[in-house]
Amino acid sequence: MIVDVVIPALDEEAALPLVLAEIPRTLVRQVVVADNGSRDRTALVAREGGAAVVHEPRRGYGRACLRALALVRADPPEVVVFVDGDHSDRPAELPLLLAEVERGADLVIGSRSRGARERGALTPQQIVGNAIACAALRRLYDVRFTDLGPFRAIRWSALERLHMSEPTYGWTVEMQIKAARLGLRCAEVPVSYRRRIGVSKVSGTLRGTVLASATILGLLARHAIGHGSPNASPAAGGRVNLRATRREPGGRCS
Hints:
Strand content: 5-15%
Strand order of the largest sheet: 3-2-1-4-6-5-7
Number of strands: 7
CATH architecture: Alpha-Beta Complex
Radius of gyration: 17 Å
Number of helices: 9
Order of helices and strands: EHEHEHEHEHEHHEHH
CATH class: Alpha Beta
CATH superfamily: Spore Coat Polysaccharide Biosynthesis Protein SpsA, Chain A
Number of domains: 1
Distance between the termini: 23 Å
Structural class: alpha/beta
């Protein structure tokens, strides 16, 4: 299995070398770090750690991911893995995600909610926000996610079908919404989670928390309202037919 890893990074000079050192390189073809306008030595330490570096000066988690994928697209892998650059994810657990891909999953979410996590690794607002978003996903699309975690693996062929476009905080939930609407085979695995190095650009500030929450809820609302009849097919731009999803083997996340 050809696997590439994408790491969006903003001012992660201290954390990134530790993240890169934990990636099981025998399983990975290349690591691409998307420097999202860092003011420190993020790009330099990424290169020193053996990663390819692309630059996306316009701030936004989704923009950074899209910029990295533009490089990956020149010689696409079979699977793309997304990892945060702040040392909160544990890249050594990558085999857990790839095992689910080998079993047939198109998209695998590393669930922090189901795994062991350090005290304080997830803020109360993150826990509540995840619960609300996942409840909405289940209500709207009959898919059982427990997290919007950034540590995830997706088949390249499936990722291309999603036509990802969200430029900021809503990247992860956009992927899960579109995967549900297309009836992709989804899975979750419990993963470990630890306190990040440094202050979070999202949950570490009131402004970041409010903007992230508004973006995620806004995406859920737009997809729910804008996709027409509940019985319209995803290809026609409507919401996924929940009965059809239930009948399709592997069509629901578990």
